[in-house]
């Protein structure tokens, strides 16, 4: 008698996923199994890409001093560490669990693997959330406390210490998972709410400050240095706002699913199984998107990626390659801006003409 094998009609207490959805997929649940196969294939394709892109982001910040001159890039590299762990650890684990669900039976080994996958997923998701709160806080300090920020309030060492504390805090928050699952869910939901409130508050404050500075630039004469600093801060704000928006978009399904599964009696097992695995995979997809956002929004990252991939130490050559690759897009953007300015000048001329008549 094999003690590691459990009856499919009996769900061991360790099988948290099966307890949540109410059972295991049957062979007749064709549609749900097809969705699970699609999720497996997607994770197999995206997992190495997630690891590669985030590794590039980390190496770029580590080896290119010009990137480390911007403190926000250091935190983005720390965020890339969590995203790298998602691609190397969590996505392969989720893929294995999904494959076993498709072809295997309920065993205690599978149940333990489910627990490990759940822990690592939640642990890394919370770590990403804390790092995003740190990025938001760094932008708040850079915008609202300019002089203190410029005089060494935020340093590379302090940011790395804060990143280490973020990992420690995420680990501490998961201690209740091994004590009582209901306590873990309660504390985790409270933590997520507080983190989102901090992120939102920081970005609203930064947005208002950017708007205020923009009005100042349009009504008063300022130095070219102040103008360039404002443009740089505005660009970084747009970057972090994009990262936050994408994160909220990717995290929304799992948040809704957590609430919906409380009324799981209203849905069949195959529906619960499908939405749970889809929402978890969609959350992990955020780790694949983050380095793409860096490359799209920050030219210095694009140049650094070209240097690393092409193995060139010539910065001018890498910048030339970047210009050639993105010249068409940039040219279109310039043409659009020129056309918009021409239309504005035309409208102003029309208004003056109407007043004169």
TrEMBL record:
Domain of life where this protein originates: Eukaryota
UniProt keyword Membrane present: yes
Biased composition (Basic and acidic residues): 337-349
InterPro entries: GPCR_Rhodpsn (IPR000276), GPCR_Rhodpsn_7TM (IPR017452)
Membrane-spanning residues: 35-61, 73-100, 112-136, 157-179, 185-207, 236-261, 273-296
Pfam families: 7tm_1 (PF00001)
Molecular-function annotations in GO: G protein-coupled receptor activity
Limits of the G-protein coupled receptors family 1 profile domain: 53-294
Region described as Disordered: spans on this chain: 337-357
Localization of this protein: Cell membrane
Membrane topology value: Multi-pass membrane protein
Keyword tags: Cell membrane, G-protein coupled receptor, Glycoprotein, Membrane, Receptor, Transducer, Transmembrane, Transmembrane helix
GO cellular component term of the entry, any: plasma membrane
Keyword Nucleus set for record: no
Protein name (database record): G-protein coupled receptors family 1 profile domain-containing protein
């Amino acid at each position: 008698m094999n003690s590691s094998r459990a009856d499919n009609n009996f769900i061991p207490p360790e099988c948290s996923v099966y307890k949540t959805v109410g059972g295991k997929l049957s062979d007749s649940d064709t549609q749900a199994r097809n969705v699970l196969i699609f999720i497996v294939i997607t994770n197999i394709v995206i997992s190495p890409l997630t690891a590669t892109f985030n590794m590039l982001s980390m190496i770029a910040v580590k080896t290119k001093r010009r990137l480390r001159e911007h403190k926000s890039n250091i935190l983005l590299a720390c965020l890339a560490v969590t995203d790298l762990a998602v691609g190397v650890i969590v996505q392969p684990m989720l893929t294995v669990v999904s494959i076993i669900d498709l072809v295997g039976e309920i065993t205690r080994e599978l149940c333990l693997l489910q627990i490990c996958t759940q822990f690592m997923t939640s642990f890394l998701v919370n770590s990403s959330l804390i790092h995003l709160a740190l990025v938001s806080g760094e932008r708040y300090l850079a915008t609202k406390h300019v002089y203190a920020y410029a005089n060494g309030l935020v340093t590379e060492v302090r940011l790395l210490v804060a990143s280490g504390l973020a990992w420690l805090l995420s680990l501490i928050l998961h201690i209740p998972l091994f004590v009582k699952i209901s306590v873990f869910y309660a504390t985790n939901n409270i933590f997520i709410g507080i983190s989102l409130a901090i992120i939102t508050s920081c970005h609203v404050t930064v947005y208002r400050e950017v708007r205020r500075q923009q009005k100042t630039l349009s009504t008063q004469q300022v130095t070219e240095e102040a103008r360039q600093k404002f443009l740089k801060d505005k660009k970084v704000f747009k970057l972090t706002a994009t990262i936050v928006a994408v994160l909220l978009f990717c995290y929304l399904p799992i948040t809704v699913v957590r609430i919906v599964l409380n009324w799981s009696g209203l849905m069949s097992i195959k529906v619960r199984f499908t939405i749970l695995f889809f929402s978890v995979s969609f959350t992990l997809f955020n780790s694949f998107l983050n380095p793409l956002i860096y490359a799209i929004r920050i030219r210095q990252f694009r140049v650094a990626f070209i240097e690393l991939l092409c193995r060139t130490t010539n910065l001018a050559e890498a910048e030339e390659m970047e210009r050639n690759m993105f010249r068409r897009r940039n040219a279109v953007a310039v043409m659009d801006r020129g056309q918009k300015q021409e239309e504005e000048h035309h409208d102003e001329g029309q208004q003056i003409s109407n007043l004169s008549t």
